[in-house]
Amino acid sequence: MDHNQQPYFPDGLNMLNDEFDISEPTHTQARPSGSAVIPTSRPRKLTSDVWQCFNIVQMTLPNGTSGPRAKCKFCHKDYATSMRGTGHLRRHMYKYMSAHGQVDTTTQTQLQRHPDGSVTTWQLDAIHARECLARYITQTDQPISICESPFYKKLITSAYNPQFEPVSRTTTRNDLIRLFETQRGDLVAEIQHLSVSVALTSDIWNACSKYNYLYVTGHYLDSDWRITKRIIGFRPMDFAHTAENIFNIIIGVLETYEITHRILSITLDNASVNTSSIALFIARNIPQDGGYFFHQRCACHIINLVVQTGLKQVSDQIDRIRDAISWICSSNPRFSEFKRHCKLNGLKPRRFQTEMPVRWNSTYLMLKNCLEYDTTITCFYNMKLAETGQHSSKILTTDDWYVAKIFVQFLKIFYNDNVTLSWVYYPTSSHAIHQIMEMSELLNSYREYEHLGAAVVAMETKLKNYWANIPLLYALSAIVDPRVKLSGLEVLLEFIGINLSIDYSEQITNIRTKLFEIFLIYESRFDNIETPQSTQSETEPKQISWSLLKRQKKDKSASTSSGQRSSPSSCTELIRYLEAQFDVVEDKEEFDLLLWCIFLY
Question: Where is the BED-type domain (predicted)?
Answer without folding.
Answer: 45-107
